[in-house]
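General statements about sequence and structure are easier to judge against a single worked case. When preparing material for the folding task, we compiled for one chain both its residues and its backbone structure tokens. The amino acid sequence and the backbone structure tokens for this protein are reproduced below:
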Amino acid sequence: PRVDARATYSYTISEGPRYTVRNILMEGNEIFTNEDLLGGSELNPGDKFNARFLNKDVERMREKYGNLGRLFAKVEPTPKFIPGEKGIVDIVYMIDEDRPYTIRNIDVHIAAPGGVPHTREPVVLNPLLVAPGDLANPQLIAKSKSRLRRSEEHTSELQSHSFISYAVFCL
């Protein structure tokens, strides 16, 4: 038996006050100045708080550290609500700059049917934008992975006969 039940739901949503950014503060940064990290920010003092802009700013700051090989640098924004002031917030970026890492080696493993791959290691290494001794830049590592995937898709030898895996080891 089929029951034809219909219901109408009504929700009341209270979004609360829209916050305005009063100050943007930095803690833990030594390599970059506040101006270096905040230059070009999407979210600025006096702006209405916008999580999308905040996330873009965090990603831009992480990229700056990544360019220096600081793979595990952390940029964590923390809102600080001002007691007695409705709708006002300070943003405090807590930063752990970590240390620079360099690429120690890149191991390539090529598995092929019958155990004898036709693909040689240089075919895999050529599209990579990083090499042993380079700073471990996460953006270049990600681009290298993407380039390798594209080269696998366009090279019939790689696509039909071999399975490639590689690992980047950092110091």
Q: What stands out?
A: Residues 129 and 140 are 6 Å apart (CA to CA). Residues 156-162 have pLDDT under 50 and may be disordered. The radius of gyration is 25 Å. Residues 138-154 form the longest helix (17 residues).
